[in-house]
Design goal:
The chain has 153 residues and is an alpha+beta fold. Helices cover 25% and strands 21% of the residues. It starts with 11 loop residues before the first strand and ends in a 26-residue tail after the last helix. The mean pLDDT is 92.
């Protein structure tokens, strides 16, 4: 399993300070451009931010947010990495991989048993930092309260 931490592109910084999250920008990104969250209501996004660990990537000089990730966790046994999004203007710089690695490194000291995520198209990004397909997906189940028209929950 690969566990190295890729360097963040020069001129950017990662923060786990929820107060720095540009909630309006994150909501716009996710509700209009992220297949798993299209149409998500602003109030729902605000609740998600409030109940999660949040990570942002920011331009070091301007402070403008360019990427986001959140983690739902009990900080003891389990975490779910979700809502990972990189602004299209800065894609291709390794920001998403660096962000996911920073989340992994932030969670490591808690001694969690596992961190899960779901992705339709970014297996390579997460594989670079140690994520693997479930060995026994038939052991997992989901309780779906709201069906997504996009095939993901």
């Amino acid at each position: 399993m690969t566990t190295s931490t890729p360097p963040l592109a020069e001129g950017y910084e990662i923060s786990a300070d929820t107060d720095r999250i540009d909630v309006a920008r994150v909501h716009r990104w996710l509700s209009t451009d992220a297949y798993w969250a299209l149409g998500r209501e602003r109030e729902k996004q605000e609740r998600a931010v409030a109940g999660s660990l949040n990570f942002g990537v920011y331009e070091a000089v301007s402070g403008e947010q360019v990427a986001y990730a959140r983690v739902v966790t009990d900080l003891a046994t389990f975490a779910w990495l979700c809502d990972v999004y990189v602004d299209p203007a800065v894609r291709g710089k390794g920001i998403g991989t660096s962000l996911a690695a920073a989340v992994r490194d932030h969670l490591r000291p808690y001694g969690l048993r596992r961190v899960l995520l779901a992705t339709h198209d970014a297996h390579g990004v997460y594989g670079k930092i140690g994520f693997e397909a479930l060995e026994r997906p038939d052991h997992w189940m989901a309780l779906i309260f709201e069906k997504s028209s996009h095939g993901d929950s």
